[in-house]
Amino acid sequence: MIPLVTIKQFLNDLRRQKLRTAMTMFGIFWGTCSIVLLFAFGTGLTEAQLKSMRGMGENIAIFWGGITAKEFEGLPNGRSIRPTADDVRLIKSKTQHFQRLSPEYIKYNTNIRYGKQETVRNVHGIWPEYGPMRNVNPKWGSRFINDRDEAEKRRVCFIGNLLKDDLFGEADCVGEEILVNGMPFTVIGSMKEKQQNSSYSSRDSRSVFIPLSTFEAMYSRRYINNFVGQCKPTGSMKLARREVYEILGAKYRFDPDDREAMAVWDTTEAFAFLKNFFLAFSMFLVGIGVATLITGGIGVTNIMNVVLEERTKEIGIKMAMGARKSFILWQFVFETLLITSIGGIFGFLFAWGIIAVFPYLNLSDFVGTPRVDLVASMATIAILGMVGFVAGIFPARRAANLQPVQALKLF
């Protein structure tokens, strides 16, 4: 019975105070819309950045040779440590924590030619394990370098998707022959397009990948540029890194605690930092939306105070006829929640409309695809309900505490 009476009273107040009620609802509408959109865009931006970070590889570390900073077993500091492919084989034979490993040679600014198309790109000599480690995945109908290519020193290459477009356009590249520094190579595959926002030499999409053994035969290099390791899913990258320092430290006689002897980029640390950063950034955005919603709640409190002044006589008559304080209290609270709910529903619908239309604007590469999950929706509803309740409880208590005689006299 109370909701029906309250709704009827609410409609009467709405007719008398159309502009004031509409502006109050707009405050709730805009606050709700802000929270939903900031939640959605914060989530979309976070997922897009983490996906781009994973583009270089997930749970990997890249190692380079360094210069010792500590004396060790009578040997001076300042010694250069330059790993070879054999060192990576040694680590692979002894490792307890790495799932995959690959040495990497890089030949910078190499001439690449197909017919009349010519460009300059980096050539990487790697093991087959490099592909799944670095998310260098082949398109359908093509393949990455395999163990047989490595064992037989085949002149085959795998190319990035943008390099494939530069050389071949829309035509199929598999089976075609290109010249790498003047030497013929058969293209066995091209990379599936991926998002990548970081690298340590060049973007994979514009690179050429050949078997490590073929690279060694071409350029007669002894020392690798770097090597890449992927930790086991259940393993610890910290322990895996320690393992590298201990194995190479025993071979080259440097202190395993000497972090200058080997340079390392642990992407798991960067990934964790980025995840925490965007979580904090999302919470900051949501905080702005909550502040906006609280401002709308203040507007609801103000209009309910005005309603209280206008309905003082009515409250006095009801209480004189036996209406309980709880009836008056919950009538005002329900009316406040009704205003908040209507504004909130329209805010939700408007925000979801923007989220639904946004993918068609082709801006997802820059800010990701906004998405509202169940947790965000429930949190918004909880915040909205709390703001509505707090906004209504104070004028409702004032109304419930009026004495009938005082209410009639004040009028």
Written description of the protein model:
The protein is an alpha+beta fold. It folds into two domains: 2-53 and 272-410, no CATH class; 60-267, no CATH class. The chain contains 14 helices and nine strands. It has helices spanning 2-16, 18-54, 85-94, 130-133, 147-151, 161-168, 212-219, 237-252, 267-310, 312-320, 325-357, 364-367, 374-400, 404-410; strands at 60-65, 98-114, 117-126, 156-159, 177-180, 183-190, 208-211, 226-231, 262-266. Strands 2-3-7-4-6-5 form a six-stranded mixed β-barrel. Helix 2 runs antiparallel to helix 9 (267-310), helix 9 (267-310) packs parallel to helix 13 and helix 10 runs antiparallel to helix 14. The longest helix has 44 residues, at 267-310. It is elongated and about 100 Å long. The two termini are 27 Å apart. The model has no long low-confidence stretch (mean pLDDT 82).
- Can you tell me the residue ranges where pLDDT is under 50 for at least 5 consecutive residues? none
Number of helices: 14
Share of helix among residues? 55-70%
Calculate Rg over CA atoms.
Answer: 33 Å
Average pLDDT figure: 82
Sheet-strand content, in percent, reads 15-25%
**Structural classification:** alpha+beta
Distance between the termini: 27 Å
Strand order of the largest sheet: 2-3-7-4-6-5
**Which sheet architecture does the biggest sheet show?**
6 strands, mixed, barrel
Number of domains: 2
The SSE order reads HHEHEEHHEHEEEHEHEHHHHHH
**Total strands:** 9
Q: Which shape, going by the Cα principal axes?
A: elongated
